[in-house]
């Protein structure tokens, strides 16, 4: 019986309230994340998110840092660079100086985030096929969620929580508590 009394004493008086507070905070954060993902997340909402994801998919599939989203200024810069290289090597003009008919290098996105997403795509089982029969991903025969988009949303929320934790720990060290 003294063993049980020690456990109750620790839970109520000693170190228990601190751990109960941490556990309750963790449960609330987990509940909010799950509720948000199930109710609100409906695929990628911005053009930039889709661009980063397709760039990461190209990296994961071994196609290099290339994109299918070609911007006019990118065409201009690639064509200008191809002409400069062609005149420097004096081998003549190439038939496709702007690289429209071949893979187009991405020069608009910073490389770290797509590279991290490509690693995630290699580790997790990403399924790019669209199925309107699976109940979690569809409703009334309509696609509601895409599995890769859903996994990327979870990963982004994980990164967000890591940044919040790091900011909290940094602020605790920098300022008096």
**Could you describe the largest sheet, including whether it forms a barrel?**
2 strands, antiparallel
The whole-number mean of residue pLDDT values reads: 84
What structural class do the secondary elements suggest? mainly alpha
Strand fraction equals: under 5%
What is the string of SSEs from the N terminus onward?
HHHEHEHEEH
| Estimated helix fraction | 55-70%
What assembly state would you assign to the polypeptide chains in this entry?
A: single chain
State the end-to-end distance: 39 Å
What's the gyration radius in Å? Answer: 25 Å
Shape, principal axes of CA atoms: elongated
By DSSP, the count of extended strands is: 4
Strand order of the largest sheet: 1-2
Uncertain residue segments: none
Number of helices: 6
Secondary structure topology:
Layout: H1 2-12, H2 16-39, H3 47-60, E1 66-67, H4 72-89, E2 104-105, H5 112-123, E3 138-139, E4 142-143, H6 147-174
Antiparallel strand pairs: 1-2, 3-4
Helix pairs in contact: 1-2, 3-5
Quick summary of this structure?
By secondary structure, the protein is mostly helical. It has 6 helices and 4 strands.
């Amino acid at each position: 019986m003294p063993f049980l009394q020690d456990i109750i004493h620790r839970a109520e008086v000693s170190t228990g309230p601190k751990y109960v507070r941490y556990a309750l905070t963790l449960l609330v954060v987990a509940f909010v994340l799950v509720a948000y993902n199930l109710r609100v997340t409906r695929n990628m909402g911005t053009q930039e998110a889709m661009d980063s994801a397709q760039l990461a998919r190209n990296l994961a599939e071994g196609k290099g840092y290339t994109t299918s989203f070609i911007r006019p200024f990118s065409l201009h810069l690639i064509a200008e660079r191809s002409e400069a290289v062609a005149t420097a090597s004096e081998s003549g003009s190439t038939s496709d100086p702007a690289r429209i008919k071949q893979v187009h290098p991405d020069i608009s996105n910073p490389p770290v985030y797509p590279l991290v997403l490509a690693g995630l795509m290699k580790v997790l089982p990403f399924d790019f096929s669209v199925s309107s029969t699976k109940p979690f991903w569809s409703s009334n025969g309509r696609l509601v969620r895409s599995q890769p988009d859903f996994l990327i949303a979870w990963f982004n929320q994980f990164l967000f929580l890591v940044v919040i934790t790091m900011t909290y720990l940094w602020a605790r060290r920098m300022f008096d508590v």
